[in-house]
Amino acid sequence: xxxARMLKLGNLAEHLEELLHQAQEKQLTxxxxxxxxxxxxxxxRKDLYRRQACP
Length: 55
Description:
The protein is mainly alpha-helical. About 85% of the residues lie in helices and about 0% in strands. The longest helix has 24 residues, at about 30-55.
């Protein structure tokens, strides 16, 4: 997903299909889906920063 990459949302770009599938299963609204995507991106970045800080 080019737009996600341009916004530096690499995790979203890589996992969009999975996130869409989960949203469909859970019947999320658009705002709930967007929030889930953003939370996943934040979680991924925190994990990345932790791994970089503690080699």
